[in-house]
Structures are given as structure tokens and as C-alpha cells.
Amino acid sequence: MQISLLLALQILKLFAIMLMGYAIVKLGLLKASDSKALSVVLVYLIMPCVIINAFQVEATPEVQKGLALACVAAVAVHILFLVITIPLRKLLHLNAIEQASCIYPNAGILVIPLVQVLLGQEYVIYCSAFVAIQLILLWSHGKFLLCEEKKIDWKKVLLNVNILSILVGVILFLLHIELPGSVQYVLVMMNNMIGPTGMILAGMAIAETPLKRIVLTRHNYVTVVLRLMVYPLLALLLMKPFLDLAQIPHADAILLTVFLPSITPACATITSMAQLYDRDAAYASSLYVLTTLLSIFTMPCMVFLYETLK
């Protein structure tokens, strides 16, 4: 129950930052379109630093086993989300942005700051397993979905700066290479920017969209229910066998770093990608904001249910 309450408090803090982004556009200091520059900074600069920083931990046997468990569980969750979307997209007539918003939760921008507060910096590496797998899928399947490409350009996927940062982080981790203190200090500073930057971006992106339209558009709640209730409950059922079979220390906390991303709002990167590829960024951001607002209530409930499984 304590983790659930702390989680609700942290979400409220991040949502307050989003309101600041909303305010600077409403006050005429910036335009909503200016958030595209911030999207580039977030996707191509901050995220790579966060990923590399997460792997800067000692590669003890215990950490390696925990990372393997997190990777297997994260792969299972993503497969589940991709498979369940196939029948739902036809049944509920989901467009590309709605499908992407359901499949891809806000794993990095929201969860990494939450894991740091709730469990400690040493658990971020396990959360990075989910982030790494999501990034690979997001820049392959997700980009394919949003851009309506005929085929996936794997060369561009593998050369994406976020994928390269994962490879760099893993190599440093496996070879026990510790970066100089000054470099780590810079990475930590960038790491601390991910939550605020993502929320300011979201606030700016929706500032020119009437909030009344976001809240009162009934079709938006199809995505909301799927992202915040249906998909998390399915992920919760998936976590049960992992909790029962895992035979390593702190397995429940490690698996929580996988479950937490699966219950978060729609991925903020969907809004960034929609801006980068000239799709309906306002609609993507509307889903992001609505799911973020309502996740204040749903995420603590889901974590409470998770705690009852232990």
C-alpha cells in the first residue's frame, strides 16, 4: 500500500510539471509547434544518456540474473500487447495512433523517475530491460505503424541513436567498464531531465487543443480503458507465474520494474514521433494527457493488486 501511495504522489508531481508546459504556451511565450524541437532533444539526446547511465552498475551474478529475469518478462509483456492488439484493432476500429498508444506505454519518461524514487537507482537497470525492448519495437514496428511504410528499414532501426545507446550500455556493462566520474556526472544530470522534459513537452503539445474536446470526446476513452485497465490486467495475470517461479533475491521488486511500465499512460514518444513524421500529434498528445491524468487513479490500484500477488 505504501508504494501505491508514493506512486500517486509522484504522478501528481509530474502532472504539475506538465501544467507548466501548458502554461508557457497559453501565456504566449512559446507556440505548441515549438515542442517539436524539444521532442528532438528528448528522443535523440536525453534518452540515450538515460539508457547508458542505467547500465553503469557492477555486473554481479545477482544483477545479471535479475536482468535476465527482467528481459524475459519484458519480452513476454510486449508479445502479449502486440498479439492482443490484432483482434482489438478490427473489433474497435483502432487507427495507427490508437494502436501505438495501447501497445507502447510511457516506459522511460515516466517509469524511470518513479523507479528511482520508489525502489532506488540500483533498480533502474532492470527497468531498462523493458525500455530497451520497447525502443527496438517502437522504432521498428511503431514507426512502421505510424508512417504506414510498406516494409521496415532494419538498417535505420539498428542505426537509431537509441538502439545504439542500448548496445553501448550493454557492452560497458558486460565488459565491466566504468566511465570516468565526470562523464557519469553529466549522464546523471541528463537522467534527471527525462521526467520534467517529457511532461513539459506534453503540456506544450496540447496547449492549442481545447481541453473540453480532450475530456468530452467519448472515443478517446476506448484507448484510455485499453491502456490503463485491459492491458495492465492482462500484464498482471502474466506476472503471476513469473513471481511463483522466480528463484532469485528481490524477484518481486525486479518484476515490479517490468509491471510498472506496462500500466503507465500512453507513450510520450508517440507524440514526439507523430510530430517528427507529420501525423496527428495533437490527437496523440490528447490520448497521452488523458491517460496520464487518469493514471493518477489507475496506477496505484494496479500496483496494489500486484502487491497482493506476492
List keywords for this structure.
globular; Na+/H+ antiporter like fold; mainly alpha
Brief characterization of the structure:
With about 300 residues, the protein is mainly alpha-helical.
Describe the structure.
- The chain has helices at 2-26, 35-54, 61-91, 96-103, 111-118, 124-147, 154-158, 161-174, 181-191, 194-205, 211-216, 220-245, 251-262, 268-276, 281-309.
- It has 310 residues and is an all-alpha fold.
- The longest helix has 31 residues, at 61-91.
- It has one domain (2-21, 34-309): Up-down Bundle (Na+/H+ antiporter like fold), CATH 1.20.1530.
- It has 15 helices and no strands.
Question: What is the ordering of alpha helices and beta strands?
Answer: HHHHHHHHHHHHHHH
Give the CA-CA distance, first to last residue.
13 Å
Helix amount: over 70%
User: What multimeric state do the chains show?
Assistant: single chain
CATH class: Mainly Alpha
Domains, number: 1
Please give the CATH architecture: Up-down Bundle
Q: Roughly what is the average pLDDT, rounded to an integer?
A: 85
Radius of gyration: 18 Å
The description of the largest β-sheet is:
none
Structural class: mainly alpha
Poorly predicted runs: none
Shape: globular
**Count of DSSP strands:** 0
Contiguous helical run count: 15
Reported by name, the CATH topology is Na+/H+ antiporter like fold
Strand content: under 5%
